[in-house]
Amino acid sequence: MKKITSLIAISFIFLTSASFARQAAFNGDSYSISLNYNEVASPGDAVFVRMNVSRTKTAKADLSGTEAKLELIVDGKSVRSSNFYVLGKAKKEGKTMLTGIPLSSWWTMDNKCSLKISYKISNETKEFSLPFRLDNKSFISETIKLNETNTAIKTDTSPKRMDQISKLNTILETLNPHNVYSTKPFVPPVESTRRTSYFADRRVFQYSSGNSSTSLHLGIDYGVPTGTEVRAPAEGKVVMAEERISTGWSVVIEHLPGLYSLYYHMNELKVKKGDSVKAGTLLGHSGATGLATGPHLHWEVRLNLEAVSPDFFTTNFAFEPTEN
Fold it and tell me: Which residues 6+ apart lie within 8 Å of 88 measured at CB?
């Protein structure tokens, strides 16, 4: 079999998005590998790899049990990893797999990055590296003054609020490799394009008491009036639909293993926990519940617990084949 290093002989394709995509291919005696991934991403985005393993015509090996893992190497160290999960059905002849890793919004293009994929076929483990780099991106800094009501919410350390935070984190860190609902690009949850805050804004909260704190804004705020229809961006399952102290009436949808979308400060909900939704399903109506300085919708996306830019997922992030 040829060495897997031949994977680096790849072609370069430009996507109609903020990312670059590469295609890589390896042809061996008993199996072949082809993959697509975004070679370039911005801090706060993600890197996704779609990999297809197929058996050659003359081989008899069973490839249905193939396993693979993606690692992100930053400045020479493996900092994050994610196991591949299967798209569709695994067959003896091969399988298609997908996985993604979130990128910190604090990293810069000065960080030297690469990807490593390790896979196991027929009790044989191999690995190869892929080039990857971060693009440049700047983030907005803003100061938000809170009245007494919002100050009380932001500084609330009650057991009830701590339990709500713990419950949400437990949901968001859950990764079920069988829960594959949709790999299609997301559609924004509201028709309005008016944004009042952006992903990863660097925020300073000024409290009515005179104190302050700093944080990142983990999503996108759409400046829409109370009662605006909020719709699901893609197929998935509702895993939370309830009122919370900080985020008011809130909805969380699971789309892929480790991939969730979140909707905060809503006025009313039209779905409940356990509901299946499709792209365009009405989730409820926007409002100003919880910690809010005015009516808006907060849209957030989490991958492996970390907040990532929702805009990244409005592209063909999973490299779904498109018709010519």
Answer: 95, 96
Q: Give the percent of the chain with pLDDT over 70.
A: 93
Residue 2 has pLDDT above 80, yes or no: no
**Count of CA atoms in the C-beta half-sphere (13 A) of 129:** 10
**Contact yes or no for 127/119 (Cβ under 8 A):** yes
| Cβ-proximal residues to 155 (8 Å cutoff; 6+ apart), any chain | 207
pLDDT > 60? residue 40: yes
Distance CA 201, CA 220 (A): 9
The single-letter code of the amino acid at 210 is G
In this structure, which amino acid lies at residue 169? N
- How far, in Å, CA of 87 to CA of 93, rounded? 14
Nearest to 255 by CA among 206, 318, 190: 318
- Write out pLDDT tens, residues 219-240: 999 999 999 999 999 999 999 9
Average pLDDT estimate for 184-195: 97
What are φ and ψ of residue 177, in 5° steps?
A: -65, -15
- Mark 6-31 as b/e (b = at least 16 C-beta within 10 Å): ebeebeeeeeeebbbbbebebebeeb
Which amino acid appears at position 200 of this protein?
Answer: A
For residue 188, the SS3 value is coil
pTM of the full structure: 0.91
> In the block, which residue shows the tokens 């983990």?
218
